[in-house]
Amino acid sequence: MGTRQRLILLGAGGQGRVVADIALHTGLYREIGFLDDDPAVADTGLPFPLLGSFSEYGKWLGEADFAVAIGNNAVREALQDRLTAAGASLATLIHPRAFVASRVTLGAGSVVMAGAVINVDAVIGRGVIVNTCASVDHDCRIGDFCHVSVGARLAGTVHVGDRSTLGVGAVVRNNTDICADCMVGAGAAVVSPLTEPGVYVGVPARRLYPDGAN
Q1: Is pTM, for the whole model, over 0.90?
Q2: 25, 138, 147, 159: which is the annotated catalytic residue?
Q3: Is 138 a catalytic residue?
Q4: 57-94 pLDDT tens trace
C-alpha cells in the first residue's frame, strides 16, 4: 500500500470516480487527481481535477501514490506495468465497508469496493478489482489484473488465472480452477474447471467463443 498523501488515478471514467470515492472514504489522502487521455471527461462532473494525460504521470513520481482505475483488464495491466517500471508507489485501496479477513494477501494496485468480502487465507494478485458486494471465500487465488464483478460469488479454494473477469452475479463452485483470459458472463454458474481462454455463459457455464477476456 502506498504511503503518500496525494493520489493520482489513471482513468477518469466510471471506474475512476468509484475508486476516487473509495480513496476519499479511507481518509488517507489530502489530494486526489485524475489523468486521462480523453480531455472530454473534464466536462462530466469529475469530483477531483483532471491533471493531464496518462503520459504525464512522471510529474508526480516520488510525490504521490498511483492507482490505475480502468475496468479493462489488459489496459489496466499495461498501465500499471509502466508505473511499476518507473518506480511509482502503487496504492492498494479498500473501502471502509468492505470486509477483508486476517491472512489475506492483496497485491499492489488492487481495489476492494464497498460491501465486498474476502475471506481468510485468500490471495489476491496485482491490479485486481473486487467489485461492489462481491465475495471471495477462503483459500481462493485470484491472478493478476482480474475483475470480480458486482455481486459475483466465489466459493472456497477457487483459482482464477490472470486477466480473467467474472461477470455480474456469476458464481463459482468450490475447488474449481479458471484459466487465464476467461470472461465468465453475468449470472453464469461455473461448476467445472475452465481450461481454455474464452467467453463462458449460462448455467452451467459453457464456452461460447474464444478470446475476449476483457
Answers
A1: yes
A2: 138
A3: yes
A4: 999 999 999 999 999 999 999 999 999 999 999 999 99
